[in-house]
Amino acid sequence: MNRDNSLAVLVLIAVIIFVPLVSGSAYVITIGVFSGINALIAIGLCILMGYAGQVSLGQAGFYGIGAYVSATLTHHYGLPVPLCVAAAMIVSAFAAVILAVPSLRLKGHYLAVATLSFGEIINIALNEWGPGGPSGFGDIPTFNILDFIFDTTTSYFYLVWGCVVLVLLFSFNFINSRTGRALRALHGSELASRAMGLDVTALKIKVFVISAAYASLAGSLYAHYVTFISPSSFTLFYSILVLMMVVIGGITNLWGGVVGAILITILPELLRSFEEFDVLVYGLILTLSLMFLRRGLVPLLIEKIKQLRGPLIARD
Amino acid sequence: MLTVFLQFLFSGLTVGSVYALVGMGFNIIYNATSIINLAQGEFVVVGGLMMWFFSDSLHLPFIVSICLTILSAGLVGLLMERLTIRPLKSHDLLLMIMVTISVSIVLRGILAFKFGKDPYDYPAFSEGDPLNIGGAIIQQQTLWVIGITGLCIILLYLFYNKTIIGKAMRACAVDTTAAQLVGINVSRMVMISFVLSAMVGAIGGIAITPISLMEYDNGPMLAVKGFCAAIMGGLGRGRGAVIGGFSIGILESMTAGYLHSGLKDAVALVILLLVLFLKPAGILGSSAAARLRKF
Amino acid sequence: MKRTILCAAFFLSIFIFASSLVAPCTAAEPYRIGAVFSVTGAASFLGEPEKNSAILLQDQINKAGGVNGHPLEVIIEDSKSDETQAVLSAKKLLERDKVLAIIGPSTTGESMALVPILNVAKTPMISCATGAGITQPVNERHWIFKVAQYDFSVAEALFAHMKKHGISKVGILTITTGFGDAGRKALHDMAPKYGITIVADERYGPKDSDMTTQLTKVKAIGAQAVINWSVGPGQVVVTKNWYALKMGIPLYQSHGWGSKKNIELAGKAAEGVISPLGRLVVWDKLSDKQPQKSLLKKFTSDYEARFKNEPGTFGGHAYDSLTMIVEALRKVGPDKNKIRDYIETRIKKWPGTGGIFNMSPQDHCGLDKDAFEMVVVKNADWALTK
């Protein structure tokens, strides 16, 4: 992990610790909790799309699996929460493999549509066979590790963002490992990668699995926070939202996922005063960002900063 | 037994015809630009709601309303192309998909603003009792929908094969650079494809609303199913989308009828996945030709 | 180095900006009530009339001098029919606006999501949704009430009517959303009590355009009546399909049918359709001795005058919940505990739009199947039926 990223992570940790102390508002911290949950999924999608060049319109499916598996195991069987979260991640990983293997040959539009269908099928399955059906179910236990219960907004905020930091560290390591570099090679040119002897198939599966695992973790954290879930939270609409987060924040940089997640989570709160216009304003903001912030906010910012640094210093 | 089967069949034909029209709309744009327009469903909604506006709210004569509706839809397509697609000129697949999604959100927002959340409908094109065929009933409006779909197929066929513009659009689909080299104004073809696609979608909306009503947010579901139809028939193949659309409609109906009605919506998706995994070129498509395409 | 500092500044500024959304505490003069409604999104057919009713009532009360001289301020948040947004809305209301109570949400799912939050915040909530789980088990719902009838009461009203008319085999169509699913469960639960067998159990999606397949199955299996439980255009489509198929068996709708718009859209297909509706929709057909009639008449005419639309049963829920809280406020003042106690113990034989309420420590809803009138569509209008 390079120096700049390490520093940025440290700064993030400082900010995370700092925010609940500065802001006495449970409302703001709640926004922070949801931002963090969204950030987890966004980071996974960033790796998938930005580094491996694969498209997914089905992340809500894994998000839903994570939420439902964890919630059901804890609620119906009383198993400890962290175990169930891990179990959910395994189930999601499994589902990702099932999706990835046949999808491997697909490119571009076709892959996007395959993942979209997958996400929708999961949603229909949850609607049909999930506990409670379309009505969902509640009284899901709050996240707890042994005797410590995360039942305040602030403690949950730390839990979620703690996970974000861990996920970021893991992801940076992954990207800079041999596998990660192989991924970037794959993104650059699949043909060349194969020619170089890379096991392209295994790589793609790995990446799908990682992004699915992150989404699953996010889903579990969501379920144990809101303590009520229903299939209507895990729809195509949400998959598109996550895609928006990543595209607006910047695919090529994991921080883009984090920033995009925060922005998209805050946006509806800022639009509260618009009432009926909010769908319209939402769409307009998204359209305009897509048109003028092509590569996303974070790469744009980084470029501006590089320009400021100027030609004076010939850095890495 | 036969009656029941026929009833399921007619139900499938009813919904399938709209999927077919949406699928055709997808193909029109795809052929000219290689873009998948995920706002396609919204064109259908525009058709239904604008038709209500002209015929029931402004009380204009039937034919006038239809023409105005189709023209308005064409205008919507034109604006979409001019304002969002044209400026981007990007080959970045992802960005284009995202842009069409965000445009669909904007369109939905405008429709919600203008028409609210209520469902709308207007009288069917012909009054009278449903027809009885073999004990199963088929509504007159359903026959209209199927007939109109058939008419669109014929008109599009004539357009693509007998008119210069149509042939020029086909040329763009085959190879954009070569098309430009022979003097075809590719950007104008792109514009026309959006206008045409919007009109086709709107025609579907106009025809189906008397049967199933129209709400501002019917778009996404239609887009997904119509897209399934297009892929099933082979992306880019007009007639394929039609067969795909009707097939999906009928299969959905049969699943609901003979298996389990709760799983109906999964049918289109599962078929889509099967087609993608086993024969991405589509059931009717040619694998060799598909490999040569960009996407 | 500069880059990371700028990154840090960026993150910080976002969070600080967000923190600044917290407004400073304002004067305690007005009484603030929060409202979480699904004004947009899939359940906007619930949230929009609810929002309008709340605004109407607020303005009427303020014009008449407020609540014991204090202006009433109803702060309405749109949950967009989404649980996450409902949670955020509630937190904002509780904390930024420091509301005394919350009315809504519009849907069962959102209400369930808010239950733990309101319990922790020790603030009364009167939901406008129907789910039984909202107010049960009552010992875990100390602060939670609801004013919409139970789904099983709707089912009971339907089955009681059928039993009276000699129907024992019924086919049901439900929509695959929370609304329809709740109805499906209620129908299955209540059927045995009235000696009715459900011989067909069909479903359809919210955007489906044709239900002849499902209806054909119901007919083929020999049902004596068909029940459709949904809201939105699906009700109209089913009605039109039922009519076109000439099914020959009666069509019953759920309480979601109670809107003139449905009759208008379904046209002549709607003749003879039966459903249990809250009295709000048929106030003009009630006898003058009915305790709810005068308030129903006033509410409906005021609403129609201002919004050019009927309030419908759902608008009535907001009216009931807000009226209860205001009454409590008038009697016991701005104390959350006292308001809660008042609602639990003093709302007895209380005429509202949804019915005559009898709240108690065991029942935080207070309505049963007598809240409904059986209504049939006759000559494009409602008519009472037995």
Question: Roughly how many Å apart are the termini of chain B?
Answer: 45 Å
The outline of chain C comes out as globular
Shape of chain B: globular
Quick one: how many beta strands of chain C? 14
Structural class of chain C: alpha/beta
List the domain count of chain B as a whole number: 1
What does it look like?
The complex is a heterotrimer of chains A (316), B (295) and C (386). With 316 residues, chain A is mainly α. Chain A has one domain (3-315): ABC transporter involved in vitamin B12 uptake, BtuC (Orthogonal Bundle). Chain A is built from 13 helices and 2 strands, in the order αααααββαααααααα. Chain A has helices at 3-22, 26-51, 59-77, 81-103, 108-129, 153-176, 178-188, 190-195, 200-226, 236-249, 254-270, 278-292, 297-309, and strands at 144-145, 148-149. Chain A is globular. The model of chain A has no long low-confidence stretch (mean pLDDT 86). Chain B has one domain: ABC transporter involved in vitamin B12 uptake, BtuC (Orthogonal Bundle). Chain B contains 12 helices and 2 strands; from the N terminus they run ααααββαααααααα. Chain B is mainly alpha-helical. In chain B, helix 1 packs antiparallel against helix 10 (238-259), helix 3 (62-88) crosses helix 8 and helix 6 packs across helix 8. Chain B has helices at 2-33, 40-57, 62-88, 93-115, 140-162, 164-174, 176-181, 186-212, 219-233, 238-259, 264-278, 287-292; strands at 131-133, 136-138. In chain B, a hairpin with a 2-residue loop joins strand 1 (131-133) and strand 2. By secondary structure, chain C is of the alpha/beta class. Chain C has helices spanning 2-19, 44-63, 83-95, 108-121, 151-164, 178-190, 212-220, 233-244, 260-266, 293-307, 312-332, 336-346, and strands at 31-37, 72-78, 101-103, 125-127, 144-146, 169-175, 197-204, 225-229, 251-253, 274-278, 350-351, 356-357, 372-378, 381-384. In chain C, helix 2 packs parallel to helix 11. The longest helix of chain C is centred in the last third of the chain and has 21 residues, at 312-332. The interface between A and B is large, with 42 and 42 residues.
Overview in brief:
The complex is a heterotrimer of chains A (316), B (295) and C (386). Chain A is mainly α and 316 residues long. Chain A has helices spanning 3-22, 26-51, 59-77, 81-103, 108-129, 153-176, 178-188, 190-195, 200-226, 236-249, 254-270, 278-292, 297-309; strands at residues 144-145, 148-149.
